[in-house]
Known about the structure:
binds fructose -6-phosphate, Rossmann fold, globular, alpha/beta
Amino acid sequence: MCGIVGYIGTKKACPILLVGLSRLEYRGYDSAGISTIEKDGLSLVKDKGRVKVLESNPEIEKLSGTIGIAHTRWATHGKPSKENAHPHQDNSKNFSVVHNGIIENYNELRNMLEQNGYHFLSQTDTEVIPNLIHYYYTKNQNNTVNGFLQAVRDCCIALKGSFAIEVISKLFSENMIVVRKDSPLVIGTSATEKYISSDIPAILSYTRDFYFLNDLEFALLQNDKATFYDQNLNEIDKKTSSIEWSATASEKNGYEDFMLKEIYEQPTAIRETIGARVSLDSKCNFEELNIQKDYLSSINKIYIIACGTAMHAGLVGKNVIEKLCRIPVEVDIASEFRYRSPIVNEKTLSIFISQSGETADTIAALKLAKKCGSRTIAITNVIGSSITRESNYSLYTHAGPEIAVASTKAYTSQVILLNMLAVYFAELLETSDLKTINTIKQEILDLPKKIEETFKCKDQIQDFAKKIYQEKDVFFLGRGVDEAVAKEASLKLKEISYIHSESYPAGELKHGSIALIENGITVVSILMDKTLMEKSISNIQEVISRGAKTLIVTSHPCNENMFDEIIKVPDTISYLSPIISIIPLQLLAYYISKEKGLDVDKPRNLAKSVTVE
Ligand code: F6R
């Protein structure tokens, strides 16, 4: 997805903007550009291709302005090209704009502007924005900075769709205006500098103090001042939030790739997410939820809604919540939920999981559930993200910034949080006995150490990856909660190695898909649930008879001669086993991708946070 960076301060803007853009590269993009306020007007340097191409443009060296905006574009309207790259300017070159999101009524606005004498140089939806600002600026006939603000506001009210926008003007050489609606944007602040970005890690090395905008709130920025307005331009008060992530958290710190670093950060991420919530001497602590026993007893369903990996965490959550709390849990994909006229009302508690907190489908689903009367809980990794502003309650995973496109530590942190939430609900409802609860708590507390032990399988996995990296298809099997892990492992493999892969409940294969099993094909099975192990082994026997090569992940004794490769991992209770069993499979996807020489952190066609529908 597109990335935005902005700077207004006392230093040269251009180097800061370029560093910011390179830190946003992981989001995926196809072109990049910069505009700064220079003595002789607005600069504009942009091109198709990587940030490095922009850096090597001779025009870049000439930029000395202390205010600037920059962008990485992920093409939606119009092919990747210099003309379509951002920033865009109005015809008079008074205003430069960068934009994330999609303007749904851009055709209508473009026609209106053309009828009023404006012309367009690109095929983008964005180019209407600077021209519309110019249109209102001229129409309103107010040449003060308030007139600039009024023009940006009038423009944004006319826009339909999603946007995060930065605007600078040669007419107001000490200001920048930023605004967002359904698209991410954060403002970092210090005494004499303001940093703007699509996400926190890109500017974390400069400041820990951030302002977060709600939809259609406007920030009028100067280097030493930030003034905020609602959509009617009434001034509003805003406090900063302090971000606890360390400044180096978004660096590779000696690892070859972010994904590998993030896999190895899982013990810490889990420890941080557990925090002070769990102890053997007291009940689980979720005081920010303010949910009472009466309410919990009154609901008849919990919905867990998310996309991709976060949805797979939801499937693990369903298992533990249903078993401990005896409340039916439905898990749905956000993009399906929002269009299926879901049965949600005040008797439904809806939980939304999103690492980024910015996934458009998940946020839209949350808004729908709220409208239907459901209470909503957001589980996210990013403080101040959009989802936290929409939900009744926000619960944070403390995984630290996740930069690699393929989610690893965010997933396991979501799973541990859901386990703790299930225990919290069960304690409130008194649906599970003390012994069970205490066993789970002890296992939760022991988990970071067990993850560290799990890493011992690394060499074995690396060797196995060498054997199978040229495969065309890989199957993943599991029963019960192991099937949720099979789904997640299969997704990891697909997204970073481009190998076709499928996951199935082990017992389902024989109902059709076993027709695909042929000599030499790799079948990976997760056998963590002891109670279902024998059944699953019978299913694996069926694929072995048809010539499959088998790898199993288990913590239980098994017939060593039966399988081609056995990955032994530490034992834990089945509720938590998905956190252990996914680790070798994350490593497997990683090493296969490396063997194939692929870009692990930035797989093709994918973006880290999917902020459009
Ligand atoms: C896969 C992956 C995606 C995300 C999905 C939701 O590795 O990362 O499937 O899980 O796009 O993103 P968030 O959690 O940010 O809502």
